[in-house]
C-alpha cells in the first residue's frame, strides 16, 4: 500500500521549501537542504514473484520510472525511510539488491548546474531567439520563439495551435510538408511528461536537422507530412524547469494538496483500469475522465483529423525502443523488425545500448497511455515509443551528452521513415 502519511510529510516539506524560496530550482521531495531525505537508485535481481511485483506496482507514488531490465531485474528509486522494509522484503524472497546511485539528488543537482538554461548567477544563456543551443535545455519561451521563427521563414512549415493549457500556454503542432497529397503522415510528440527535457530537445533537434534543407532531404523524409508536437505538456515542462526537476504531470489542481494529471494515463484505451492511476495524489493519476485534460483533448482533435500512418512518442530516459502489446496480432513480426532496426541505428552513434521490444516485457504495464490508444483505437500499426539515453532511467545528462542523445533519436526517427513504407 502507498504510505500516505509519509508522502504527506514529504509534500509539506516540499511546500515549506517552495514557500521559503529555497532555491531557483528545487527537486520536490528531493529538495532537502540537509540531505536527510536521501533517495537512492537500487537494482533488484532474482525471482520476481507476485509479492515482489505487487510491491513495485504500489510504488508508483514515487515515480513510474521503474524499469524491468528483464524478467529477473528491476531498477527503482527508493527513499531512505523505505529502505529497511524493502531490503527485508527482497531478502525474504531471495532477491539480491545493489545500490546503483547512492544519492540521486546529488546526481540530479550536479547535472542541473551545467544544463539549466538560466545560469546560477542569474544571467540568461546567450542564445539568439530562433536558434538552439544543444548544450543546455531551452525554456518554453525559447522553444516557442524558435518554432515561430522557422514558421515565418519557411513555406514548408505550418505552426498550428491545437489548444491552450490551464496556464494559458499554447500546445503547438508543427507541420513540415511539401503539401504533396500522396505524402503519408507521421505524428511525433515529446514532453508529455514535464521532467523529460531530453525528449523535447531531441525532437527539436530532429526538426532543426530537416527543416533548413527540407527539399534536399532524401525522399523518405521529404515525401512525408511531419506533424510534430515538441512539448505536449507545456505547463509540466515549465514547472519542472523552474520549480521541481522531477515533475511529470500537468498542473491541474486536483485536491487541496495535490496537483496534476499524468497525461499519459488520460487516454481512453484501458483508462483507469490500474488501481494506482485512480488515486488523485499519485504520480500516475489518470484524471477524472478519459480526455479530461486540455493537452490530451488537443492530441485527440489532431488525431481525429486526417489519418496518420505512423506514430512516434519520444520519452526519456530509458534507452529503449518499444512497441505496444502486440503478441497476438499479425503485425507483431513487423514491429519486432522495426524496433530492432531503430535500436540498431541509435546504437551506431556511440554504441549506447538501446534495446528494443514489447512494452510489457520491458516496462511495467501502463493504462490509458497514448501509444495504446493510437495502436488499438486508431489502428496505427507503426506506433512506437523511443526512450532517449539517460542514467539508469533518469533524465540526467551532462552538457556534452545532450547533443549525442538528440542525435540518437534523430537516427531512430530517420530509420523509421526509411523503413515504414515497406
Ligand atoms: Zn515519459
UniProtKB/TrEMBL annotation:
<keyword id="KW-0479">Metal-binding</keyword>
<dbReference type="Pfam" id="PF00246">
    <property type="entry name" value="Peptidase_M14"/>
</dbReference>
<keyword id="KW-0732">Signal</keyword>
<dbReference type="GO" id="GO:0005615">
    <property type="term" value="C:extracellular space"/>
</dbReference>
<dbReference type="GO" id="GO:0006508">
    <property type="term" value="P:proteolysis"/>
</dbReference>
<keyword id="KW-0862">Zinc</keyword>
<dbReference type="GO" id="GO:0004181">
    <property type="term" value="F:metallocarboxypeptidase activity"/>
</dbReference>
<feature type="domain" description="Peptidase M14">
    <location>
        <begin position="136"/>
        <end position="420"/>
    </location>
</feature>
<feature type="signal peptide">
    <location>
        <begin position="1"/>
        <end position="23"/>
    </location>
</feature>
<dbReference type="InterPro" id="IPR000834">
    <property type="entry name" value="Peptidase_M14"/>
</dbReference>
<keyword id="KW-0645">Protease</keyword>
<comment type="similarity">
    <text>Belongs to the peptidase M14 family.</text>
</comment>
<dbReference type="GO" id="GO:0008270">
    <property type="term" value="F:zinc ion binding"/>
</dbReference>
<protein>
    <submittedName>
        <fullName>Zinc carboxypeptidase-like</fullName>
    </submittedName>
</protein>
<feature type="active site" description="Proton donor/acceptor">
    <location>
        <position position="387"/>
    </location>
</feature>
<keyword id="KW-0378">Hydrolase</keyword>
<keyword id="KW-0482">Metalloprotease</keyword>
<keyword id="KW-0121">Carboxypeptidase</keyword>
